[in-house]
Amino acid sequence: MAKHVFAYENQSGFRQFMADRLKTDVTLKPKNVSPGADTGLSAETLALLRAARAPEFALYDRIIAAQGHLITPQG
């Protein structure tokens, strides 16, 4: 058995994965969507955040390197 982790940005890949598994189309309707806003961080703040949450960013970087869909053995 494997564990599948998707990047949030890979919504189409996630939906296709679920459709394949469920043998039906998967349609998700946006809910609770925030209005667009500038949410950028300064380089200094981003560096502090990356240092404070290094394991989470390392996992995210692995997922992105795997084209947004990381498959790992579960056991």
From TrEMBL:
Source species, domain of life: Bacteria
Protein known as: Uncharacterized protein
Taxonomic source organism: Sulfitobacter porphyrae
